[in-house]
């Protein structure tokens, strides 16, 4: 079954076109009423509804993204470490260095090495014990040899 729109020249009073069905053995033609008196047809109303829905979705997405970026910016932590004080010391990590070996070399006599490692990690905002060559570690003044 094939359906086709036959568009008129507009000379018919109030008719915009006719709908022709080319089903074999069928000679039916259905009249389709167009816009009259400024009223919208069903298709135009549906299109306007979809336009409104798309605009509403885009507006909501924009508001959500804007709010998310605003919250992200306002609750972001400072990633920069606190500046080194005069009592603290900066150690440059070399290949093969571990937190344990650094803590052993800088700690005061009688201090627990694990406590020193904990203080070094806390001062440098480290979440793991892995170090890379070239890293700079700030050694707190409370653990340094006198």
UniProtKB/TrEMBL annotation:
Region (Disordered): 16-40
Cited InterPro entries: LysM, LysM_dom_sf
A Pfam entry, by short name: LysM
CDD domains registered for this protein in UniProt: LysM
PROSITE patterns: LYSM
Biased composition (Polar residues): 16-26
LysM domain mapped to chain residues: 89-139
Biased composition (Basic and acidic residues): 30-40
Keyword set, alphabetical order: Membrane, Transmembrane, Transmembrane helix
Top-level division of the source organism's lineage: Bacteria
Record-annotated membrane-spanning stretches: 55-76
Protein's name in the database: LysM peptidoglycan-binding domain-containing protein
Organism of this sequence: Cohnella xylanilytica
Source lineage: Bacteria, Bacillati, Bacillota, Bacilli, Bacillales
């Amino acid at each position: 079954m094939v359906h086709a729109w036959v568009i008129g020249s507009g000379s018919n009073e109030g008719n915009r076109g006719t709908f022709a069905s080319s089903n074999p053995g069928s000679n039916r033609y259905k009249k389709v009423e167009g816009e009259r008196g400024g009223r919208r047809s069903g298709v135009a109303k549906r299109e306007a509804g979809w336009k409104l829905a798309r605009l509403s979705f885009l507006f909501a997405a924009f508001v959500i993204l804007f709010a998310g970026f605003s919250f992200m910016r306002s609750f972001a932590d400072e990633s920069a470490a606190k500046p080194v004080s005069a009592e603290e010391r900066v150690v440059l990590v070399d290949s093969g260095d571990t937190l344990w070996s650094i803590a052993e070399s800088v700690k005061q006599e009688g201090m627990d090495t694990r406590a020193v490692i904990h203080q070094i990690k806390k001062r440098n905002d480290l979440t793991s014990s892995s170090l890379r060559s070239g890293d700079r570690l700030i050694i707190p003044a409370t653990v340094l040899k006198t």
